[in-house]
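Side project, low priority. Logging it here so it doesn't get lost.
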Amino acid sequence: MSTFFTRIFLVAALLGCLNSNAQTLLAKWTFPTGTPADSLADGGIPSNLTKAIHTDGGTSAIDFSKNGLTTKAAQATGWDNGALTKCWIIEVSTVNYNTLKISSKQQSGGNSPGPRDYTLQYRLGASGVWADVPNTTLVTANNWTSAVLDSVPLPDTCTNRPSVFLRWLMTTNTSSAGATVVSSGIDKIDDIYVTGKAVQTSVESIPQAAMMVFPNPVADILTIIADRQMTEVALTNPSGIVVLKQIASGSHRLSIDMGNLPAGIYLLKTTMNSGSAATLKIIHK
């Protein structure tokens, strides 16, 4: 029995290591419908699906009906006299994620050229201080290829945070045509992606013990089998809140119902009768 579980555990650990190398989509704005609903992220982890893009500094309202690179884009005017004040802004949660990266594309109007010069900045929480993200100087043009961020790393301080703000800040009043930006000048933004790698939670050593957790990903019932007695299992959501706790009463096998929980990534902590604990990532679909 012990050898059987040990082999399963080692295979699961190897697969977990391989999966840890992949970037997970935390949030994306691709503006697929051309309606105001596109202000909300259209993909990512559950905690980010209620996050909305907006502008700051006094631009026009965002128009989501204009053409983007593949579907629609977010477009605004009113960028005049906006150097170092007017910007696009998003907010994301990065709880349980590190190695963060961001991608985006911007386009300046052709006959109505908008701001030429932008940089990306970040802020931790609503009361944080804005700081530049390195290597994010952007120069727009009337195309989708000039002002592009392609999987640019975010600073490590953005790791595992409940609230990270990101803004595309115009840095001069020069338009993409080389003149001064006027109120009718257009700037569009599209294909914003924020990704990260799941934080690897250590699994404490449990001598001559192993666990099997299946299925993973799980839709409803998750089964846990261990060759040592379990005392308790706890499930933590992406915001760090314990959403389920169940007493195992010394059992070697336990099933928990995740059917009523939102889809996303959870951490399952299993405590053994020896006091040792193992924490594993569970994907709920």
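Brief comment: Residues 20 and 81 are 45 Å apart (CA to CA).
Revisit when time allows.
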